[in-house]
Predict the structure.
Amino acid sequence: MEEMPEKIEIRQKFPSWREMLKPVKEFEEGRLSYISLPKQVDSEFFKMPFGDVERDFDDLKLPENWKEIFLDALKETLEKNRSFKLFMDICVRCGACADKCHYYIGTGDPKNMPVARAELLRSIYRRYFTPAGKLFGEWAGARELTEDVLKELYYYFNQCSLCRRCSLFCPYGIDTAEIVWWVRRILSRIGLNQRFMTISIEASSRTGNHLGLLPGGMYGAIQQGLEELKDYTGLDLHTYINKKGADVLFVAPSADYFATPHWYVMLGYLLLFNELEEKYGLTITWSTYASEGGNFGTFHSYEAAQLLNSKIYKEAERLGVSFIIGGECGHMWRDKHQFINTMNQPPKHEEWKKFWENPDLGELAEGLRGIRFDNYASGEHGWIHILEFVAALLEHKKITVDKSRNDKWIATYHDPCNVARGMGLIEEPRYVLRNVMNHFYDMPEHTIKDKTYCCGAGGGMLADELMDLRMRGVMPRMMAVRHVYRKYGVNILLTPCAIDKAQFPPALEYWKIPIEVGGPMEMVGNALVMTAFGEKPEDRQFDLRGEPLREEEGEEGE
Amino acid sequence: MIGVIFGVIVPYIAVAIFVVGVVYRIVNWANSPVPLKIPTTGGQQKSLPFIKRTVYDHFDSPYTWWETAGRMLLEIFLFRSLLKNTRYYLDRVSQKDARWLWLFGILFHYSLLLVLIRHSRFFLDPVPSFVEQLSDIESFKGVFIPSVYISGLAIVVALFLLWFRRIFLSRERTLSLPSDHFALILLLAITISGNLMRYFFKADLFAVKELLMSLMSFNISHAVEVAETIEPIFYVHFALASFLLAYFPFSKLMHAGGVLFSPTRNMPNDNRARRHVNPWDPGDVPLLAKGITVAGRTYKSKKLDWDTYYEMYKDQLQEIEEADYKIVPEEL
């Protein structure tokens, strides 16, 4: 028998504000991000200040006048951004946000409370930019900027997934994502970038997508998808790429071209596009140049985000499409909903302007008349979410679905943070899911919709070296999943987010919840009856995973 | 002498600091550019006509100016975001409501509002009838003699409750800075001294009103005259209040004005209908392609425009051209 400890003691890690002001010296393995290498931040297409030096965390090799640069950048940020300045000034430290952060819940590290995270920087702001901090120093909660403090900033500001859950509960709407985003920008000015996100940013700035996929590779991947579909459905399908004169440009996160379970969603897109073209003549094209819906720049800085999302409107213009449909991705929709048309000039070409004067799909394909987007969108933006699009098709009965094909799935739906809190796309996916499958159950109310918990891997936290942080951060979400798994026997977790789809499989394994992960478009693809190709509801034998739709023959009917 | 210092000089200085400070802060915020339209959407967006929105969605994910105004009003008068508060417990799936903070906050702020309204009797002549009526209602006139103003006591209770949170809850203790305690202690001192003056150590309220009226009309010689006649207890209250006014613009108490400027709350969720223009970036050429300058050196990223892209991957793109931009399954 193991001996019981004599006394179990719970000690407060930082008993007072003074302890909180001292920078931590110990950095947990599994929570500390690697620093970027020169090949990522000194590349021709993505050049960051002081990116030419190889750094590691023990030896930051900071530029000589780093303090000055840091403070200048902080000053610039305060002047450039009202929200940042305001959020530095008005926090009352009421603590409402504290237990709203999945990283704080998961790690228990007090400095992971959203308010504490912001205070890491606020203390510096007070010291250098407010009279109270200059006069009273520590007593006003101010502290000097030292290299240790800088390390702490890097450590904690790369433990936030920019999910904005805290901002929802803050009485002043203080948005930690905003603070973190701009602090990462400041850190990038002295050469400190997080490796994982800059790998993708650099790749995307050079090739058009995060995976660094070249045109031929993307072509091949989609082709393989068509081949698989031929095996599963027996239909000869096709799709377009870089096609000028198509009606719609489709932009998906690049993970959809390769990763699993993203792949099944990709097959779902292809089925839908073929049905629409064959039945109504609506042509939808992919693009190798605008081949990335996601935007890791939105985790890094305003400028990086802009560098990556500037391509897409240009491509829409070059191809002469009428509007853009975006695929299943979370942070993509923060970028494509709130950022893209501010950071760039929306397209101004003829087809675009003409369509948005009267945004009725009937203008592009007569059979689709009646589906309109002018209720909430305009030519100043021009993006429609694929699930909004499918919801409209279903509502107007333009596509035929057979719900029973998804009968083996009992699904629940995870709202990606940015889709829910940066856009408000909440009911559309549920509308779609209820229409394409019979068994759909929501998780408890406080973990979904606008209050959704992050998957713990957004905001650049999907890095392998952050596994400890990721598995801890996903805990609140996993507990909610376990609840519906036990209560309703849920066997698939659906999410329209590429990062979720990469994070959930290991997380479900870690938290011992034996269910699958997928995307809503996979369910749509399963249920979609390809009527234009003469398919009957009962014709389909395999689902998009290549598994038989019906477990045993002869069970039906009699 | 006390009367002149704390009755005339200090309040003038305090009010001056307050006005200049608050105006400076507000103007400073209002003049800062807002680069992006970043409302935090707390509900269903305005979307396709058949996607229904509840009443709450209109305020939590506002689309029109009116809905946004509604969201701000709910935030200011009902602390709507705090009202959503829940507390996380590891051992259960459901979360327990934890709206104590909301309750204490509402109790404090509304008491403060009532107290301030009642205090307007010292500044206004004649006293507006609604001030009288409000005072009568909240004191249940005629029940106690002298009348007991509920708001005056409630504000003390609320402040203690808010302070106890910071003292006894471990998380809040860790978070609280001296300034957080200081603001609460200062407000407690003011409200307690006010109550003491009301119920135990009476001051000559007619003289107080005369003092304030002459201060407001800049009749300084008369103010000095009156100030000397008022009891010291009044100056405890009055000096503390003056100090609060002077402290206000430098402190977190500015949240009172700041809440109005918060871009995550005061912007409509209509990004797709109306383009937001960033005042310092017209969005024509990516800033990194123009180059960013740090410590005298300019770092310029090459822009991957279509022509560059085409040059780089010519072979593969030409193959796609040859396939007439169409992908079909490979014949086996």
Remarks:
- The first strand of chain B starts at residue 86 and ends at 87.
- The mean pLDDT of chain B is 89.
